[in-house]
User: Fold this.
Amino acid sequence: MDDELRGGAALPVGTLAPISFYVAYQSGVVPISTDQGANLISSMIAFCVDVAVSVPIALATSPKTDAELEGLVYSRAAARSAGEPAPGDSAWYRRPAVLGWSAIVLAALCYLPFSF
Assistant:
């Protein structure tokens, strides 16, 4: 089986596992007292199955060469170097601190009307 087919296996398996659990829950095979409890367990099953399938596949597949990644990512070499800032990188809306504090202020403003 080639790498692309193995790499795409986790998503369908991680989707089918909670669907199977849901069918078992709805048919009464798995006794859960509430729908919310069943949904929580279903999401945990999806996560665990996806990790259980993804990790061995990731360890078994070979990484892509730089030539195969060309055009898909900017550059692996550029990611390793600090480099020079591009024009426009110093703009206020590209600064993480400004964006972070803006998000906090906006969240607080959205919360205020509902807190009184």
Remarks:
- The radius of gyration is 23 Å.
